[in-house]
Amino acid sequence: LCIRLPYRAPYCWESISAFLAKRAVPGVEWVREGHWHRHLLLDGQVGHIEVSHSVADQALLCRLSVPATASLYSLVTRVRNLFDLNADPLEIATTLSQDRVLKQRLAEQPGIRVPGCWDSFELAVRAIVGQQISVTGATTVMGRIAERFGTASGTALLFPTPEQLLQADPADFPMPRSRAQAIISLAGAVASGSVNLDHWVEPESLRQSLLAIKGIGEWTAGYIALRALSDPDAFLHSDLVLLKVAKQLYGDDSAAALLARSADWRPWRAYAGMYLWRAAARLNR
């Protein structure tokens, strides 16, 4: 199947594909020659999905190799959330361009989106793994978790489910034991239903349920809300990269100052954060 998924222009495919490529779990998900790929499990069988950008059509092209089409609507919804296809970039730009710094960034790269996620549990595990290590390091660790605890089917690899990780020994994780235990606790909370990672959950409710798990702090809970729920106003004001770039661009040198400044960007603070992250990457090359 090949499905055309239109968006509201402009759309910065370069930004979102680069973001996902750096964070793709080895063996599970990858970006090659500008095309995003992923293995998936559907009706007990392994399938494959590929997404690419068609500038001429102002759309993403979604190619699916799946055993059945009964879950087609759910799959398309996941793709739309992952690539943030429901956003209105002109409305977002109207608010953010009131800021002198963001106005310049918007002009340089219009249409930057906030990446969602394909699997919210996998994303939550990623958020825990990413505490205090680099993006590249976290990606490597995620690949090892998938290989050690996930399901292999031929050349395809599927990330482990909460039930699979719930049975794992913390000593078998390639990370500090306390962080591994946080992942196992998260798996138990998701499996029992005490943490609900569904896309429609209210962000503050999810944040509180996540903070109740030992080893999950404000940054981790905020990152999960940002991407798992596609919360357009989620903002990681204590993120070290955002604090560094804010000092360079605004002179702000504290999380409190950045949080206060971000009030002018509401309700699109998640997009402001993406532009600042992008600016940090360019400034620190």
Feature tags:
alpha+beta; 48% helix; 14% strand; two-stranded antiparallel ribbon; 13 helices; five-stranded antiparallel beta sheet
Largest sheet: 5 strands, antiparallel
Strand residue percentage? 5-15%
Mean pLDDT: 94
Class from helix and strand fractions: alpha+beta
Q: Identify the strand order in the major beta sheet.
A: 1-5-4-3-2
Q: What would the principal axes of the Cα set say about the shape?
A: globular
Structure, described:
The protein is of the alpha+beta class and 285 residues long. Helix content is 48%, strand content 14%. Strands 1-5-4-3-2 form a five-stranded antiparallel β-sheet, with helices on one face. Strands 6-7 form a two-stranded antiparallel sheet. Strand 4 (45-54) and strand 5 form a beta hairpin. The chain is globular, with a radius of gyration of 19 Å. The protein starts with a strand and ends with a helix.
Task: Provide a quick synopsis of the model.
With 285 residues, this protein is of the alpha+beta class. The protein has helices at residues 13-23, 72-82, 89-96, 100-108, 120-129, 135-149, 162-166, 177-192, 203-211, 218-228, 240-249, 255-262, 269-283, and strands at residues 2-6, 29-32, 35-42, 45-54, 59-65, 151-153, 156-158. The chain is globular, with a radius of gyration of 19 Å.
